[in-house]
Specification:
Blueprint: H1 6-28, H2 42-47, H3 53-73, H4 87-121, H5 127-138
Helix pairs in contact: 3-4, 4-5
């Protein structure tokens, strides 16, 4: 694709700037940080029907929702009507999913800690023994 529109040029510039910001963030602590970065090629995005920054932001919001939904519920949102929502509404749904995921993780952590306490009450000598008993019970 040799003749890019102004929107496509702006899209490439936008992605390049975001990628540079991400690379700088990783470089601040490269021992502990990594990141994947989106493709910068306008032709790649055109194949997906994305020609502008606005379309890119929507595409990324939908992709984020699609993946977060699976993380929280264990399956993809097959019947979710993305066309009924604008990008901001999709991002609000993503925020809600993140909050739900955090609540679920906290509940799982509390249940795990409760199980450890139960093992200690049943006679485990220490926390490590209680954890080992739980792991053996799951095996």
């Amino acid at each position: 694709m040799t003749n890019l529109t102004a929107d496509q040029i702006a899209l490439v510039d936008y992605i390049e700037a975001a990628n540079a910001k991400t690379m700088a963030w990783v470089a601040e602590d490269s021992e502990n940080r990594w990141a994947m970065m989106p493709v910068v090629d306008a032709e790649h995005w055109a194949e997906m029907g994305v020609y502008s920054v606005e379309q890119y932001e929507r595409h990324m919001a939908i992709a984020t929702h699609w993946n977060c939904y699976k993380d929280v519920y264990g399956f993809r949102p097959r019947a979710f009507d993305y066309n009924a929502l604008n990008t901001e509404e999709i991002l609000a749904e993503v925020e809600d999913l993140c909050k739900q995921g955090e609540r679920d993780r906290l509940a799982e952590d509390a249940a795990y800690e409760s199980s450890i306490s139960a093992m200690l009450e049943m006679g485990a000598a220490d926390r490590e023994t209680a954890i080992r008993w739980l792991e053996q019970a799951e095996a």
